[in-house]
């Protein structure tokens, strides 16, 4: 469901209204071939966006041949028109590095002056290319240049309205993405030139950001608002786009149902999204269709409708043969198929697909790193070229200043007595202005540095979380291949402990404060993960109360392991031979002392319970981590078991 804006753009391209007789493929290529030199470029410029996409490979190969045309190269304007056409081709082909090189070369050409509207187009394409390569510092620089042009009154491409909110979303700063997108929607509503699809699409994106930020009620609100706006603006006059957008939004609502565990309600919504997507048959949207089919298969697995899940997997396999399927989607397909095979007791085949998912995921990460390194190398070369151009321009300016200085000196000698006072006054004003500029520049540098440090810290937590999840995945693969039940339990316990630490890092990189963990949110996710891992026939209700409690990472990690040990122990032992049970987790603070109470209404502790005589890694871990927190452990055996831990925050 990511890249929603690109999907909507693709849907727009699928439903164009054609007036008159469109040129066929052969006709366009024949017409281009019949032209000569600069006329070929003019013909390319006259084509519609759709026609350029339909003949992309042909146009790319033939425009490249024009780079050796002496007549075109001898004329600056003609040469720049050709470079601009090739740069646009790179945009269509999604070759981000070539896009950056081509447009930077156009911008650095001081002999060619193009209008601000065209410069805005170039900057928007550079912004998108840098964003795709995760070069966020360059995106921020481009944003400032775009802001300058917008202040001058240059029109900003409407369908690029959400680039800034999209940047926040890529950094997992969904709170900021929501605020930014709301501001962008206000700007769109003020623009009379907006098309009828853009507002419903924007509300759909806003709902998606609320969904990613775990604000379910707000996500439902904006998804429904998107459907209402689409029905008002599109249903009567543009049913094709209405049908496509409503299918997409309903698919998103299906994901909300999945997140709430209502898989039965999610199934028809996801099926409607798939039905619309398959009817469109747009290669640009194949990836989204396959993802939705995988989600549908997951729902049927959860509902134990294995035959339907098998049909979903087979449909996904058919779609995967099409173009435009991302490696990440293939990873999701392998994992879902492994889950289905595991449910069908085909453990060997499940292991094979889990292994495929693991290998492909590792390959994706390696490829991203190589691409980032290559991008940095290209950017270094571009910066060297920019520095050379700036030096040449500086030398020219120095010579011009020298000439002007001689003239000014001559005039100064003639008018010395008259202009002496004005000259001194101007010097003082210049010094003041220069100091003001230096202060402003330093302030900007400090702001950029703070943003960069925030991004780097977020990336560290994100990578630690990913590495821990890889370790957890390896343990899961190992568990599938082990027959000894005791060893399986030990591996599962180790995996649970790793997941509890990974959740800490996930909570940190998704929050604005990287030094504190909000324990109410963290415990909710931890309990959900434990419930999934220890899927029991006993109906266990868990209440969590830790409002306003925030702990430093040095305290949060050992405390998370303690809670994980106690709660998993409750799942395994407290409710044997019981149909239901309750667990309460209460974390409070009084002065500088924190108190954690975990209580269940299960079978209670053995009569002769003594933790010192237990041969239990789990309880040893609880005692050791409590000492690390400079705390103490106590327990009660009344109507179940209560464990009370007091400790200090080590942060």
From TrEMBL:
Catalytic reactions on record: ATP + protein L-histidine = ADP + protein N-phospho-L-histidine
InterPro entries listed in its UniProt record: HATPase_C_sf, HATPase_dom, His_kinase_dom, Sig_transdc_His_kin_sub2_dim/P, TPR-like_helical_dom_sf, TPR_rpt
GO molecular function: ATP binding; protein histidine kinase activity
Matching SUPFAM superfamilies: ATPase domain of HSP90 chaperone/DNA topoisomerase II/histidine kinase (SSF55874), TPR-like (SSF48452)
Domain Histidine kinase, chain residue ranges per copy: 459-651
Spans through the membrane: 402-422
Keywords associated with the record: ATP-binding, Kinase, Membrane, Nucleotide-binding, Phosphoprotein, Signal, Transferase, Transmembrane, Transmembrane helix
Signal peptide: 1-24
Taxonomy, superkingdom: Bacteria
Keyword Transmembrane part of the UniProt annotation: yes
EC class name: transferase
This enzyme's EC code(s): 2.7.13.3
PANTHER family: ETHYLENE RESPONSE SENSOR PROTEIN, TWO-COMPONENT SYSTEM SENSOR PROTEIN
Descriptive protein name: histidine kinase
Species name: Flavobacterium enshiense DK69
